Amino acid sequence: MTENGKTRVLIVDDSIGICRTMAMIFDRKGFDADYSLDGAKAIEAVKKADYGVIFMDIKMPGMDGVSTYREIKKISPNVRVAIITAYAVEERVQQALDEGVNCVFYKPLDMDAVIDFAKSGPVKS
């Protein structure tokens, strides 16, 4: 949460277009949205801010979504994470779910479902 009571959302995707579009939609829906274009930058962002929800592409150059998820959960164990993917990488998706990812969304995204997931905010400890 931010100081104004909004849920803070982080979008992690190597596509600047997806990041900007999702951030704009979240901002319009009353969230405080940021984005990172790769896993390493996402980890740095999580170290600096308290995100309630993260939407992360599973397939990115460098550190993929599953590896990034593992590191983020060490820093912020209560954050809810949804993997987003356009690829048939079912083995990686299953691995992400086995490791504790909360949800998977396939591109093109159903933004109503994505917003509903974000409204749930962080995991209650």
Task: Describe this protein with a few key phrases.
single chain; 125 residues; alpha/beta; Rossmann fold; five-stranded parallel β-sheet; 5 strands; 20% strand
Topology:
Layout: E1 8-12, H1 16-28, E2 32-36, H2 39-48, E3 53-57, H3 65-75, E4 80-85, H4 90-98, E5 103-106, H5 111-119
Parallel strand pairs: 1-2, 1-3, 3-4, 4-5
Helix pairs in contact: 2-3
Description:
The protein is of the alpha/beta class and 125 residues long. The protein has one domain: 3-Layer(aba) Sandwich (Rossmann fold), CATH 3.40.50. It is 42% helix and 20% strand. A 5-stranded parallel sheet has the order 2-1-3-4-5, sandwiched between helices. β4 (80-85), α4 (90-98) and β5 form a beta-alpha-beta unit. α2 (39-48) runs parallel beside α3. The model has no long low-confidence stretch (mean pLDDT 92).
* Poorly predicted residue ranges: none
Main beta-sheet strand count, sense and barrel state: 5 strands, parallel
The beta-strand count equals: 5
Strand content: 15-25%
End-to-end gap = 15 Å
Helix tally equals: 5
Helix content: 40-55%
CATH architecture descriptor = 3-Layer(aba) Sandwich
Question: So, the CATH homologous superfamily?
Answer: Response regulator
Q: Which strands sit side by side, in order, in the main sheet?
A: 2-1-3-4-5
State the CATH class: Alpha Beta
Q: How many distinct folded domains?
A: 1
Radius of gyration, in Å, reads 13 Å
Question: What's this, in brief?
Answer:
With 125 residues, the protein is α/β, with parallel strands linked by helices. It contains 5 helices and 5 strands. The longest helix is centred in the N-terminal third of the chain and has 13 residues.
